[in-house]
Amino acid sequence: MERNLAHIALFAAVIAVLGLLPKLSLGFGVPITAQSMGVMLAGAVLGSKRGALAVLLFLLVTALGLPLLAGGRGGLGVFVGPTAGFLVGWVAAAFVTGLIVEQWRSAPLAIVAGLASVIGGIVVLYGFGIVGMALVLDKTLIEATALVAAFIPGDFAKAIITGLLTAALHRARPASILSRQARASA
C-alpha cells in the first residue's frame, strides 16, 4: 500500500515537473506543454488505476492553489477556463493508457505503450478537451477541433517518447513497470 502511494505521488510530481518547462501559449489560451506526456507516462508505467490516481492527486493540489500547471497556473479558476476539458480528460487518458498496457501483452512494450498513449493520451484526451473548449469558448465542436489541431503532431511525438521511455525503463528495471505486474497486485 505504501509503495503504491509513493508511486502515485512520484508521478503526480513528474507531471508537475513537466509543467516547469517553458510553455508556449496559442492565442485562444491553451498552452503547449509537456505535462500531457506525464499523464501518458503515469498510465503506461503505473497502470490504469494508479495512473488515474496520480493525475487526480496532481489535479487536487492544483485545485488547492499550487501553481503546478504550465506557466505557473493553479487554483479553481483553471477548471473553468479553455483547458478545463483537457484537465478533466487527463484522468481518463491515464486510465485508458494504463488499461491498454495492462491488457495488451502480445506486442513489444514500446509499441503497446506508444499506441496506448495515442489512444488514451490523444484520442480520449482530445474528446474531453474539445468538448470542454467548445463549451467554454462557445464554439461548435468542429471549430474547437480546428483550434486544437495544431497540437496533434506534438502529442504524437510525446506518445512515441512515452513508448520508448516505458520500454527503456522496463529493460533497466522490469519491476518498475507496475502496469505489467501480476494483476493480483494491482
Alpha plus pi helix count? 7
Number-wise, the strands total 2
Assign the CATH class. Answer: Mainly Alpha
Name the helicity range. Answer: 55-70%
Family: Belongs to the BioY family.
GO molecular function: biotin transmembrane transporter activity
Keywords: Cell membrane, Membrane, Transmembrane, Transmembrane helix, Transport
Organism: Rhodalgimonas zhirmunskyi
Describe the protein's architecture and organization.
The protein is mostly helical and 186 residues long. The protein has a single domain, classed as Arp2/3 complex 21 kDa subunit ARPC3 (Orthogonal Bundle). Helix content is 66%, strand content 2%. The protein has helices at residues 2-18, 35-46, 48-63, 84-103, 109-137, 141-148, 152-172, and strands at 24-25, 31-32. A two-stranded antiparallel sheet has the order 1-2. It is globular.
